[in-house]
Amino acid sequence: MNNSQVTDESLSQSTGSDLARLAAGLLFLAVVLGFSFYFVGPSSNQLFLAIAAVFGGYMAMNIGANDVANNVGPAVGSKAMTMGWAIVIAMIFEASGAIIAGGDVVSTIKKGIIDIEAFGENTDHFTWAMMAALLAAALWLNLATWARAPVSTTHSIVGGVMGAGIAAAGFSIVDWATMAKIASSWVISPVIGGVIAALFLFAIKKTIIFKEDKVAASYRWVPVYVAVMAWAFVTYLVLKGLKKIWPEIMQLSNELFFFTVEVTKKPTFPTALFLGGLVAILVYGAVKKRLRSKLDHLDNTRESVNILFTVPLIFAASLLSFAHGANDVANAIGPLAAINDAVMTGGISAKAEIPFWVMGVGAFGLAIGLALYGPRLIKTVGSGITDLDPMRAFSVAMAAAITVIIASQLGLPVSSTHIAIGGIFGVGLLRQRLDKNSTLLAEIKREKAVVQGEKARLKALYEQLNQVESRDGRSAENSEEMLRIYKLIDEERAVIKTAKKELKKDQKSLYIKQGMIQKIITAWLITVPSAAVLSACIFYTIQSFMS
Questions:
Q1: Which residues pair with 353 in a beta bridge?
Q2: CA 111 to CA 113: how far, in whole Å?
Q3: What is the pLDDT of residues 193-220, one digit of tens each?
Q4: Average pLDDT over residues 402-408
Q5: Considering only 110-114, 209-213, 328-332, which range has the smallest mean pLDDT?
Q6: DSSP reduced 3-state for 200
Q7: What is residue 6's predicted lDDT score, i.e. its pLDDT?
């Protein structure tokens, strides 16, 4: 079989796979359309609400395809999990987080970026704006996923709501102070995430990797790091993943245990810290006991240390997915719930109840979008920015949890996507600073030597050419020798040009793939305005169609 046949066959398989994914996605949206008709029941706005449900399902699929990569990408890139297992685990925990902890009430306007009172009693304009926001955010996420650029789904829906709100009621509807805070997260999130990830990786290297006896150092420090991870993730899960069902959890605990505690609307920070601390103590003891039985089987190598972080990393990916499903499903079902509430009650509310069928659209949309298109972004996050191993991926996961905890207490706006990418970037920068003997670095040194050697040969040829030209007379033999030297000079120039090109390419991707970082940052900067412009255009289209 020749190369052209192989290429044609690969292209055919790729096209067939793309068509199969598209068909599966369209089938899901068709099911959403059918079920929305069934659950809503006959009404004058049945078709309108069913179309809104399709938009919500489409948005949920794109959240699953783009945003979930931040949770499992590092684990896949570090080889702690295969792509298949990552998809399965993320699907289960994302859907579970959405259904179990997604809550029964959601804010109709994400982050309070527009004033719903500006709509007055014009319910039609409000529902059209929410539909436009959903579709615009979904289309932008779809484009970003196709371009392999991880972007914030929260910023996408924020841009969509802002653009539709401006189209419906003018620029005064927007809370520009809130928008300024959101814009600040473009800097705050990646910087904090990068610093924390780099600090954790440096601590692991300093206390374990740089030690002569790595086995003894691992026994001493790995339980500490895993316990800190347990504390951070339980605290994170309580604050972000269970906040919407916290009253039910407290009531259940009062019924099961002999003592009673006050039922609060949301978990307090001290409560979350206390629960995280209890779990951390248990985890420390369990890991210490487990390591004691494995010490004799560990080699005094970096690879052995990496293995010890594999299981904690899998747990981290699972808990991040659960918390993400509980929180970010609102990006898809919030506007849909708002539309449902407006259609059913005829009014506009700041909070809307989430019918079970609406939650189902969000939960299953996340899982299906992840299964169909998630691998594109998982590869980008896991290996498209810098090379990850379990220790580095562990540091990124820690940064994701701790940054959210810190930001929630300080009232800082952060994006989980920006935190994860910032963490990966921070790890790459630390590697660049610490690693002196990497294989790629050695290759770059060899390429530099090639360039210098070729330059020296080129210089010698020029000197030889000058000697020939300085001879008396222009004999045929002299001319032939000059032509031969000119030919050699051209060959040397070509070699130097190729060597410099390879050298430049390797230097750019030594520790951080700069082209990918530039593409991601560009996508971040244009997410809100792009979604806003697209949403405004869709609102005007809906308005002209419905008028």
A1: 105
A2: 5
A3: 999 999 999 999 999 988 888 888 999 9
A4: 83
A5: 110-114
A6: helix
A7: 44
Of residues 62 and 253, the one with the higher pLDDT is 62
Alpha-carbon dihedral of residues 26, 28, 30, 32, nearest 10 degrees?
-140
Which residue bears the tokens 């096209």?
Answer: 15
* Contact (Cβ atoms closer than 8 angstroms) between residue 431 and residue 302: no
Angstrom distance (rounded) from CA 297 to CA 299: 7
Work out whether strand 351-353 and strand 105-107 pair parallel, antiparallel, or are unpaired. antiparallel
* Structure token digits, residue 121: 């009693």
- Tokens representing 154 are 């929260």
DSSP string, 370-429: HHHHHHHHHHHHHHSSS---HHHHHHHHHHHHHHHHHHHHHT----HHHHHHHHHHHHHH
Q: What element of type H or E holds 107?
A: strand 105-107
535, 133 contact by CB (below 8 A): yes
Are 118 and 169 in contact, with CB atoms under 8 Å apart? yes
CA distance linking residue 40 with residue 444, whole number of Å: 64
- DSSP structure class, residue 44: T
Q: Distances in Å between the alpha carbon of 66 and those of 336, 375, 421, 429?
A: 20, 9, 13, 25
Number of alpha carbons in the 13 Å side-chain half-sphere of residue 414: 27
Alpha helices in 295-389 (DSSP H): 302-308, 310-328, 330-345, 356-383
Domain boundaries, the chain: 16-435+511-546, 440-507
- DSSP bridge pairs for 351: 107
Distances (CA, A) of 256 to 86, 170, 250, 261: 35, 53, 10, 12
The H or E element containing residue 464 is helix 439-469
Give which of 424, 147, 163, 540 is closest to 155, Cα–Cα. Answer: 163
**Does the pLDDT at position 405 exceed 60?**
yes
What is the tens place of the pLDDT at every residue in 260-300?
667 777 888 888 899 999 999 999 999 998 888 887 788 88
Cα–Cα dist 141/328, whole Å: 14
- Residue pair 369/389 in contact (Cβ under 8 Å)? The answer is no
**Identity of the residue numbered 160:** G
pLDDT tens per residue across span 495-519 = 667 766 665 655 555 567 777 888 8
Residue 404: what pLDDT? 82
Least confident of 176-190, 375-389, 470-484: 470-484
**Whole-number Å distance between alpha carbons of 385 and 370:** 20
Distant-in-sequence, close-in-space partners of 207: CB < 8 Å, separation ≥ 6: 217, 220, 221
